[in-house]
Records
---
Amino acid sequence: MSVFKLSATLNAHSADVRAVVAPFNDTIISASRDKTVKVWTKDGFWNPRDNFVSNGYVNSIAYDEKTTSVLSGGQDKLINVTDLYTSDVDPKFVLIGHESNVCALDCDGKEVISGSWDTTAKVWENNLLKYTLEGHSASVWDVKILGNGRYLTCSADKTVKLWSKDKEIRTFVGHLDVVRSLALLPDGVGFISTSNDGTIRVCDFDGKLVQELVGHESFVYDVIVLPNGDIVSAGEDRTIRVWREGKAIQVITLPCVSVWSIASLPNGDIVSGSSDGMVRVFTRDPERTATIDEIKEFNEAVESMALNAQSFDESKTQPPETLQRPGKKEGQVIVVKSPTGINEAHQWSEGKWNKIGEVVSGGTSDQKQEFDGKTWDFVFDVDVQEGAPPLKLPYNASENPYVAAQRFLEKNELPMSFTDQVVDFIAKNTQGVTINQASDTVNPYADVRRAKLVPHTDYLGFTSNNSDAILKGVKKFNETEKSFTDDELKLIENAFQTQDTEYLFKVATTILTNWTNALPGFDIIRLIISTVPAPPEVLGDVFDKGLTPNSPPILFMTFRIISNIFLNTTWGVPIITDTGITTRILNQVALTDGTGKHAVNVANALATVVLNYSAYACKYKSSKIADLVANTLKTKGLEVAQASSEAAYRLSVAWGNLVYVDGGLRAEFEQFKKGIKYNEQRFKDVFEDIAAL
């Protein structure tokens, strides 16, 4: 049996390649988050040409052979129609109608169908809207035209739906998570669907499950059928898998994080688009195989990938001689301790073991990982909620794990009471990894040359983007408040996605003015206050309604808003540090919820505001603000610190700032210090720094 081998690597885009199509053997079209659509033509080598530059991410693409049109959709909510053979500044046509990101496209020469995050699919003919398919309750991730007025869609609501014109005629269930992609079986006998549950389901149109293909280790993003009938899938586990008769016959591992999209050339070659900005072509034809050097470079890139130890059971690490025995199935992965002591992951494919990376937690691999635009020694996956995608925890071996833990919890708006658990997690998953140390037993908490913790002059905030949860809350409470129509709720959802702060402030004002439970309105303001160009009129209402002890959730959300105002570099600091406003705010620093369920959130929000004011006093040598903060810390500091170690730590740093401004406050700080009972290294560090001031 011939296997796929690398044919070409196209250095395609400067960001993720989210979609690829391959209409001819010598033509590939790719779409990317770098906002471009590129056409690749092969004349000995693959040569690129910009086809279209969008105003936002391009996430979907299709080709209409009848009109030689390239259709692309994405973040701008539009479907732009360009010609394959030209580079268009402006599209030939623009199909307007979706209210959010266009993430799926298909066409058959007569009709076009599109899917969107706005929960609808739309059918177009002659560049005009023909049908809107409404029935899914979440984003429509893929769409297919079946012919004769029938269409197939899949959604984040875990379902696949069959439509006749604009009428839903059948719903297929079976996947346990978001359904990501669809492919049609030859001769119209059924369809294939993939899901975030890691499975691929082959069904007929009566809903009968014909096959379930299991092998991917994470989300399965795309699926196609080759001309010979083989099924090919790709996903978050950075693999392309080839299936025949229900079994994986080949697994191709790529040197990237995600394989987003795949397509088949008419000759049966596979095209992939991935998170590293590359388009790759794989072939079974020896005449089209890449050179020996190109294949070697590709294999070395795969081998050099650093793999998260959490993906493997390192207690089952095998000795090197295991690689002399055959694997149990295509795609099987084992961890082998190499003669040099490094744990290596090997995958059984093409009848042999292939190294696919080094397991980072057990060795000294210096492979760096990219996340949020920065380079890290580790980027861990942390499962915090069953059924939800893992959160990313970046960490550098040279930093204080408490800093990494706090950064992770703040970004994801998780309780700071989890700090010690996250620190323990980091310690367990970085055992043996040290920076510039001869010994492999150095305590990972020990910062031999750690940075001084005080004075601290950076402002902290609560900027996690939980817009989905806010929107869910708005919809829930609106059922009784009835302030927004269904159309207005869609506009609100769109405003979150497009970051329309002006519209969101109007929504927040309506909620604050009219709703009994105004918490969603406060949370909207918390989300956007740090970026708006001018102080919003609703800010007065926020202070009037939020600075009361009657509702702990409203109080801690108000203090989160105040923290985020410090982050607004245009107008925030001058307004929030006005003496009258500062006095009013600090007078409300009190642990209103005692030991109740909101105590930690209240304490952390209060402490952050106090810390920010102390940072201002320290940065600008403001004795007036320093006096107000000192009075707050002396009268309320220990009360707030009792509720949360994170609050206690931030208040300790605030005391350090004040002692830096006025050494005469050292005695009051020592009284506070005596009341701190948390036995954590970070407290020892900050107290040591304050003593040295």
---
Amino acid sequence: MSGLRFVFAALAAFAFGSATAGADIKLPDYQTVQLDNGATLLLTQRKDVPMVAATVLVRGGALADPAGKEGTADLLAEMLSKGAGSRDALAFAQAVDGAGGNLDFGSSSEALTANAQFLSKDTGLMLSLLADALLRPAMAPAEFDKLRKRAIDGIATAKDSDPRRLIGLYASGWLFRGHPYGRPAGGDETSLATITLDDLQAFRRQQMGGDRLIISIAGDFDPAAVIAQVKQAFGGWAKAEGALPQVAAKTKESGRRVLLVDKPGATQTYFSLGNVGSQRSDPARAAQDLVQTAFGGRFTSMLNTELRVKSGLTYGASALLPRPRQPGAAQITSFTKTDSTKAAIDLAIATLDRLHKDGLDAATLQSARNYIAGQFAPGMETAPQLASAIAWLVLYGDGRDYIDGYLGQVATATPAQVAAARAVFPASPDLVIVAIGDAAKIRTVMQGYGPVTEMKLTDPRFSP
């Protein structure tokens, strides 16, 4: 279920030449066409392969879920491919597979999403399938019942077998309690059970429409033909009836608080330490990324070196720094054996303290610059990556310098800027902590980190 994944939109674009620590990646030119109903069409020519890719975004997403019905957007996104137009679910899948194409639907906090890739000769089919799914989904009751049951069962399975899939949901719910970012995008067992097919239909009317639509197409295609096809397929889509969700920024927490999620008999403890972090528009993005990379963003990071390589307390430790529209979470996450819970959390906190006290030396900083440059380019080479990058730029209202100037900012971030950027990760006295484990064995340990609130892993929600 897509809601179980802490989904973030990744930067992606087409790379002209190789990337080094001082060389920027430049987006190619693209054409913007505004339809009369408010839809935006973005066209990028790339003739090297006879393929065409599309990313489609419909503004709104999980943040628009009605209160108590979290998971509505996620279920709706999955329903879009379960039959549309004149095709039932099987016929729709056969139309995609028969053309050798790929077509996937999903949801994020701010948009319903579709990603497609077809041979150039099937561009018309791709657009037709997208239009059917978005404007004329079958919304068959039997398909809805199966999807909802699968979503609920997926949560139960994760709780039983692999709580690592859930630690982010508990961490977000605890840090952002009472805030929209604390609501589970994929729903929980309580909210999913209340969602009906009528709720999905109401969401479609309120949160889907031509004025919310962004279509980004990249590859080998005839621009004039595509413009005509898109206008024919989507130009008559009426505006959404509701308003876009608005989210206020949450301020950083002061002091500590702990959530202990009890899983009796657990042999491991999964933990998160965090606070409010960064946002999409943060001008210190490049410097923060250097800090995140060195601190917890790669195998040789400070956290992974201390908790895995040197001490053997875990198989992995990382620092996460997602950037939604408003500030998201800055988090340390890891897991360890039950009897080493205190040692692992203490070492994670000590490593955080060392980051704030000592910072990054010149060699580590240069290594982080090189790592970012090396990782940035391979994710920016294909038509699907290009279509996605441009679509998300438009959704967030970013200029092209968000990508074009990024590696230059990484290369030129000064030591003083990087030192200041360490503040994106919380000081250790101000940690919001979550632990999933055997409460009978780790309760006293967790009480040592701050006031503890307890809930059971079997509770049908992700926050107390």
